[in-house]
Design a protein that fits this description.
- Helix content is 90%, strand content 0%.
- With 87 residues, it is mainly α.
- It has one domain (2-84).
- The chain is rod-shaped and about 115 Å long.
Length: 87
Amino acid sequence: MWHNLTPADFQRARHVLNLRRFDTLSRHAAELLELQARHAEEIKALDAKYTEIDALETMVAAFVREIKPLGDLIFRAYAASSAAIPR
């Protein structure tokens, strides 16, 4: 068998390997694009959650600023009323 190999046989083998290599690189590029797109979507979703947390924090801070004076008033009223109740 070895004595029947020709330079054309080696050339064909190289050609087959080049085709397989091209196929592998093509699949790799397609998979990479797909993975990058999926990661971009995940990052977008995480960024949206981050924005939601920021908005919630802002709303809570505004609520506390609005309610705190009322809370102090209610606490003083409760303290005054419970002091007036005999035990």
